From TrEMBL:
Residues 1-183 form the Calcineurin-like phosphoesterase domain. It comes from the Bacteria. The keyword Membrane does not apply. Belongs to the cyclic nucleotide phosphodiesterase class-III family. It comes from Larsenimonas suaedae. InterPro entries: Calcineurin-like_PHP, CNP_phosphodiesterase-III, GpdQ/CpdA-like, Metallo-depent_PP-like. This is Phosphodiesterase. Keywords: Hydrolase, Iron, Metal-binding.
Amino acid sequence: MRLLQLTDCHLSADPRALYRLGFATTQLERVIEEARAARPDVVLVTGDISNDDSPASYQQAVSLLSRFACPWFWLPGNHDNLQVMREARSLIEEVDLGPWRALLLDTHVSGEVAGELGEAQIDALERKLEADDRPTLIAMHHPPISVNSEWMDQIRLRDEAAFWHILSTNPQVRLVLAGHVHHAFHGSVQGIDVLTTPATSDQFLPGSDRFQLDGASRPGYRIVDIDGEEWTSWVERVSM
């Protein structure tokens, strides 16, 4: 089973619009072109699909992501408009990966940059984990861990303590995938690996105390290969 993660597309209604340093639509097209060659079995897109809340930006995303010859699913980030996003394509909470499963969490808080799961979603996560002991991958937009970047750590998942409390009694969770940080990071909490992934749009400078773009880094995507109960993962960068 090969799973592919894309994140932080930041599309606009105008496909020629500049995001920060680059053209987000062109960058996403190029990433998808290369990522298709990896022949994934499923694709997860972990939020910040749009940069301007426009229906056209989500329609662009649906059109481009549908170039994959496999199922794909998305979840919202802090920049997304949930209503407009749902009108373009459904938000799915669980994906059957055969011997594994993926749980897709919504950390979007309207009007906020930081993320939160909330009590209802935390309770639902606990029930889902208690009901199925298959190896589980959790995907979300905001990382539930410090990424060693002061400004970014201030806008990560706010209720991460409650999240990790649930996972502490559910050892079937093997991996957490997150977006939001616009660069690759690998951390661990309670023996569970937490991975972030380069944006398909522009990159942020890792380890920075203040917001800084990383103009030297290229867009990318993450591959997760699942074999039995084991997994391996790596990042692929894409030249523009």
